[in-house]
């Protein structure tokens, strides 16, 4: 006899926690959750790192700040930075982590004038919950970040309130800077007005911080790869806190219940726990690690370029969320920045410093933007490598690029310095070995967003 509708509605989602489960089933669940929760655990462990910081300071090339505060750079990110893959040298960064269950947070926006700016603010899932930047028409003022359950009084003078879906979040202001000494001086005044602090410190008056005067201490020698944030051995110990901070999205309730039941079974059963860790290690090797390579995911475009269209709004697109978190975590929303990824030349061969390449934009063929555009270069680990001219990207910020007589612009990508003066002005130095190119269109126009415009081929010339 079928269950009545009333009885069916009373059934809880997920498995019956009283039922014995097998190691094989636990491993199956563990493999699945390791993949889709990898970005969440990644963010959670970044928060744990910030929770140990006691002051705003610079540690080698890295930014440190206690929770609910941020620290700003005063120039481009140092090439030795290894905490976040695919940094750029188009903007001056700031960085901080929020713990909104501790306190709502006030974010200050000074007057940037005509300068491009955007504050990237994402939750535990790396989804944006804030629209704050030049493209959004945001005005100078005070913006309040609150957690999902906050019901306090909004004080006078707050311009807008943004509510996060989790208590953990990341705040990263990005302020455009040109490659000229004059602009590097001019930006400093605006940077001092950027701040983030707990609501209790809000008094309606703009605070000013001389970021250049923060303590500077030596850091550990940088490694080659991104700082590791996710470990299969620790994953399932951290997961209950992570899931508690990121309540299930619509339709995920049964999935969460299934995972929590398996975690409960593993708590007092070492064999189940080891089966889960083994499955996580397997998923890391076979599922997650390959997504570090841009060529293995994304929307495929002409000339072997790829892109994505739901960055920082992944929702239940678990594959793309994890792929981006593995390869270049912390991307802006598409209407803020559009990204284009490249591992190959026009023939489909891997980009490598043993060859020379050109990227030619036809007349009026650079990315159509309201903001600006850039083309960055990264080594095989998606980081910068020091080069003789200290250049890691080219684009709008470079005021000495040389256009051809027909209006086209050719970028020369190679490890050795061109002897020709024009080519040298347009030179993007290639790091040793395999490398990747990365296009950014800041505040893109419609042709970039709808796919009418795509990047030109990377041509091997020798």
Model description:
The strands form 6 sheets. Strands 3-4-9-6 form a 4-stranded antiparallel sheet, with helices on one face. Strands 8-7-5-10 form a 4-stranded mixed sheet, with no helix packed on it. The protein has 10 helices and 21 strands. The chain has 462 residues and is an alpha+beta fold. The model has no long low-confidence stretch (mean pLDDT 96). It is globular, with a radius of gyration of 24 Å. Helix 2 (23-51) crosses helix 7 (270-288) and helix 6 packs across helix 7. The protein has 3 domains: 18-44 and 229-292; 57-208, Immunoglobulin-like (Sandwich), CATH 2.60.40; 294-460, Jelly Rolls, CATH 2.60.120. This is DUF1254 domain-containing protein. Residues 337-445 form the DUF1214 domain. It comes from Nitrobacter hamburgensis (strain DSM 10229 / NCIMB 13809 / X14).
């Amino acid at each position: 006899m079928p269950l009545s509708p009333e009885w069916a509605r009373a059934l809880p989602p997920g498995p019956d926690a009283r039922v014995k489960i097998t190691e094989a089933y636990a491993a199956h669940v563990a493999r699945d959750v390791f993949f889709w929760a990898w970005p969440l655990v990644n963010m959670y462990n970044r928060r744990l790192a910030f929770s140990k910081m006691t002051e705003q300071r610079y540690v080698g090339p890295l930014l440190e700040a206690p929770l609910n505060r941020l620290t700003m750079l005063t120039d481009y990110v140092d090439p030795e930075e290894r905490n976040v893959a695919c940094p750029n040298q188009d903007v001056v960064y700031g960085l901080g982590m929020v713990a909104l269950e501790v306190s709502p947070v006030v974010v200050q926006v000074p007057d940037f004038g005509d300068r491009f700016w955007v504050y990237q603010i994402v939750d535990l899932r790396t989804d944006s919950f804030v629209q704050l930047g030049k493209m959004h028409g945001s005005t100078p003022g005070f913006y309040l970040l609150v957690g999902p359950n906050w019901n306090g009084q909004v004080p006078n003078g707050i311009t807008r309130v943004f509510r996060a879906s989790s208590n953990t979040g990341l705040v990263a202001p990005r302020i455009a800077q040109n490659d000229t000494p004059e602009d590097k001086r001019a930006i400093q005044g605006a940077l001092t007005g950027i701040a983030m602090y707990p609501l209790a410190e809000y008094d309606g008056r703009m605070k000013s911080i001389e970021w250049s005067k923060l303590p500077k201490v030596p850091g550990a020698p940088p490694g080659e790869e991104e700082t590791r944030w996710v470990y299969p051995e620790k994953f399932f110990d951290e997961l209950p806190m992570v899931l508690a901070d990121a309540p299930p999205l619509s339709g995920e309730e049964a999935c969460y219940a299934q995972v929590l039941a398996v975690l409960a079974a593993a708590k007092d059963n070492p064999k189940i726990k080891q089966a889960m860790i083994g499955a996580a290690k397997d998923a890391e090797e076979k599922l997650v690690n390959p997504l570090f390579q841009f060529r293995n995911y994304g929307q495929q475009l002409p000339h072997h370029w790829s892109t994505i269209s739901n960055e920082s709004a992944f929702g239940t697109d678990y594959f793309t969320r994890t792929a981006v978190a593995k390869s270049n975590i912390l991307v802006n929303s598409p209407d803020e920045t559009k990204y284009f990824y490249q591992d190959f030349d026009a023939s489909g061969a891997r980009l490598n410093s043993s060859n020379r390449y050109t990227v030619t934009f036809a007349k009026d063929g650079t990315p159509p933007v309201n903001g600006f555009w850039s083309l960055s270069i990264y080594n095989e680990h998606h980081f910068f490598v020091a080069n003789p001219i200290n250049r890691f990207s080219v684009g709008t910020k470079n005021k000495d690029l040389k256009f051809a007589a027909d209006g086209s612009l050719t970028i020369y990508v190679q490890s050795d310095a061109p002897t020709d003066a024009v080519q040298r002005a347009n030179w993007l130095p290639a790091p040793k070995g395999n490398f990747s190119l990365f296009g950014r269109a800041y505040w893109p126009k419609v042709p970039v967003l709808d796919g009418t415009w795509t990047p030109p081929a990377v041509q091997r010339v020798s």
